[in-house]
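Example 3.2
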Amino acid sequence: MSNEFSSKLLENAVNQFAKLPGIGKKTALRLVLNLFNRDIEDVEMFANSIVELKHKAKKCKICNNISDEEICEICSDKSRDHSVICVVENIKDIIAIEKTMQYNGVYHVLGGLLSPLEGISVEDLNFDSLEERLKTGQVKELIVALSTTIEGDTTGFYLHRKMSVYNTEITTIARGVGFGDEIEYTDEMTLGKAIANRVKMNV
């Protein structure tokens, strides 16, 4: 047993939490001790929610958002404008944009950004399923809402080149979002204005 811990059970729990992104050993220990001091019912609810998420949650067949059903609530909402698709890097970006209450279209989650240095190529992202949606001819506007980083711009340029053959206007969020900013960390007012004041994308 490591001299660092007086309990192997404690050490195992800390090591599991430390596997999460952005969680170091000190933070992991704090979280584990917090759970240890809670009522068993709270801890079981916490653990069960994660297990249930893993077993039951699905990726929406249309947009790749996390969903309880085959089709997510946004894609199945008939009150939303399905002729406008907002392309985002990940599910956290959908949550950020929804909080602005400035957008009433639907989404498409790419699942990442092109990054040769990290080995993320076109085949690793959800471009093909997006192209299938455009082939229907029912999409009037494609909003590119990617982080204003080199990877985000590279992905946006590829997307524009790939999708511009379809009769769909391609726009991008206004540069109220500063270069280098990630969508999920942009404040709601700035992000809302960036969505509302989107401009035609030129490459």
